[in-house]
Each structure stands twice: as structure tokens, then as C-alpha cells.
Design brief:
Blueprint (H helix, E strand, L loop, with lengths): L1 H19 L8 E8 L10 H17 L2 H7 L1 E8 L3 H4 L11 H6 L8 H14 L4
Helix pairs in contact: 1-2
Family: Belongs to the short-chain dehydrogenases/reductases (SDR) family.
Protein name: Alcohol dehydrogenase-related 31 kDa protein
Organism: Drosophila montana
Length: 131
Amino acid sequence: TVNTNLTGMMNTCATVLPYMDKKQLGKGGIIVNVTSVVGLDPSPVFCAYSASKFGVIGFTRSLSDPLYYSQNGVAVMAVCCGPTKLFVDRELSAFLSYGQSFADRLRTAPCQSTTVCAKNIVKAIECGKNG
């Protein structure tokens, strides 16, 4: 979970930044890190997932600091998506077994389609600012 959600995202940012950085090869731009509302508040059920998403938000906020943006012209933002139908239809495993009943109840929670989520990400890109 941490390797995919956090380390993979950090490695991707480190790889693309030189190509975007105005002081190197690029013309500026925007990096959008897709994360989750589970990274905004602790999740006692999905502990590792929550920790990885907290990490994405912290990394994004750090990389979007004016210290970097004023130098490289690369805006960085995080989009914190809520639950999608695709997510809740998966086999959800709680970090500890006694949280599994909560994970199972999540299947009936209101959620958005992946199409709505994607449209909102595009809107955030169009309307959003660095940070």
C-alpha cells in the first residue's frame, strides 16, 4: 500500500519534475496527485491506506510550497476523492480483523461513480491553484 500509493507517487514526481521545471528542461505546469478523503482524518479501519494517503497530502503540500513554485513554475495539487463505486465493490480488508464489520458496511455507503470523480478532477485542474 505504501509502496504504491506513496513511494510510487514520490518517484513519479521526482522523475517528471526535471522535464517541467522552468530552470531545467520545462515550461512549468501542474502535477495532480490523486489521494483520498481517508488521508484527511484518521481511519481506524484502513490504517495503512490512510497512512499512505496522509503521506501523499503531506508530500504534495510540501512540494507546492512557494519556495519551489516560485523557482520551478510547477504547481502541485492533491485531489482528495471520496469513495467510488469501484472502490466499495472491491474486497475491502480492515487492518485489524475486528474492524471488518465496518469495512463490510461501507458497501452500502453513498459513493460517486468513477466518471463523476474524473470530471471533478478535471474541474479541480481547471480551477485550482498551486497547493
